[in-house]
Amino acid sequence: MESEDYEESKERVALVAIVVLASLAVASLLIAFSYYCYIRNKVSKRLKFQKGEEVESKNGVSSIQVATEKGLQVFTYKQLHSATGGFGKSNVIGHGAFGSVYRGVLHDGRKVAVKLMDRAGKQGVDEFKVEVELLSRLRSPHLLALIGYCSDNNHKLLVYEFMANGGLQEHLYPVAGSNAVYSKLDWETRLRIALDAAKGLEYLHEHVSPPVIHRDFKSSNILLDKNFHAKVSDFGLARLGSDKAGGHVSTRVLGTQGYVAPEYALTGHLTTKSDVYSYGVVLLELLTGRVPVDMKRGPGEAVLVSWALPKLTDREKVAQIMDPALEGQYSLKEVVQVAAIAAMCVQPEADYRPLMADVVQSLVPLVKIHRPTTKAGSCSSFHAAKSPTAQGLGRASP
Ligand SMILES: Nc1ncnc2c1ncn2[C@@H]1O[C@H](COP(=O)(O)OP(=O)(O)OP(=O)(O)O)[C@@H](O)[C@H]1O
Ligand SMILES: [Mg+2]
């Protein structure tokens, strides 16, 4: 009897010991798992931030964390005043919606372009903020580099790398009020510019998460360096896109007439495909040498997309829309290929437009064809007084 009791109490002790040990094991597992989750979360946040990505989302709408100022120089107004010769008229290189752009030289001898905001109001300040925050964290050889900025109470200035050959549109057609030396770009250079610009958008759409939608992609926001390599500029209107496949963000419609995708103009729904449409319009400008909207042109010819689209996929008609300045420089085969890319980009239905990666893939072989037979282009120097003459055309982009 006694031995039975003894056995029973031994069993109970063993059971209690097992339960205690099992609970301890489960508790340690839970603690280890929570610690692992905490560390993983911390590391992934740090990695995302280093890559210049979004770290938080409010109400489902992406928001950008305030930028680190790493790599960006903060200038005083006085420094930029002296770099641009007191914002002298002779140093003005352009005007845009943000304000005037001046040529400047920093203390260390670097050539820069200084944008001086002359717009009052929230929109201008917001654009300034977006431009600084985004450009300080995005890095690509196909995006215009922001060197620094000045933001004191009364002055907002942006300091960029200097692009000796200015905006693309100024090489395609004369621009009212511009003192640029107007010249026509040759076919080979146009193809290379199309590829560089496509790579800039590809980076924004596909190499950054969540994707960045430029929202104001147009020929004046494609800038050309001394060798006519192109970089995409002006992120003032940029928005972070939706991470979800097929997702969109709703915004107020902003952009430039002639470049805005129909679904965005009608509904305000913005996706990376809105930029693809604008890219298609720029490709049409490169092919035809025409502005996106010109009310002075004859009936049916005022809007570039409506006029060109029916001819783009017709081998017989495609040659009719080509810029006459390009005559004799291209083969029909390559023009048909570029026209087909343009036609897909400006499809009214956003889902039928290609990804920018597809556009890059299609243009690479065309640009390669021209690589071995490098020849000087028909372009003359731009911003002529100070910039070096055009050289190195046909060299592969870096
Ligand atoms: N980094 C730069 N280097 C050389 N020239 C520049 C630079 N940035 C701008 N420019 C010149 O200044 C002009 C005006 O540029 P800006 O971006 O202010 O206006 P925009 O592109 O014409 O219009 P928007 O304000 O709608 O973007 C450009 O067309 C170009 O000639
Ligand atoms: Mg611009």
Automatic annotation (TrEMBL):
Transmembrane segments: 12-38
Origin superkingdom: Eukaryota
Binding site for ATP: K122
Matching CDD domains: STKc_IRAK (cd14066)
A GO molecular-function annotation: protein serine/threonine kinase activity
A Pfam family assignment: PK_Tyr_Ser-Thr
UniProt entry keywords in alphabetical sequence: ATP-binding, Kinase, Membrane, Nucleotide-binding, Serine/threonine-protein kinase, Transferase, Transmembrane, Transmembrane helix
Domain Protein kinase: residue ranges: 87-367
Region span, Disordered: 374-398
Assigned protein family: Belongs to the protein kinase superfamily.
Name this protein carries in UniProt: Serine-threonine/tyrosine-protein kinase, catalytic domain
Source species of the chain: Dillenia turbinata
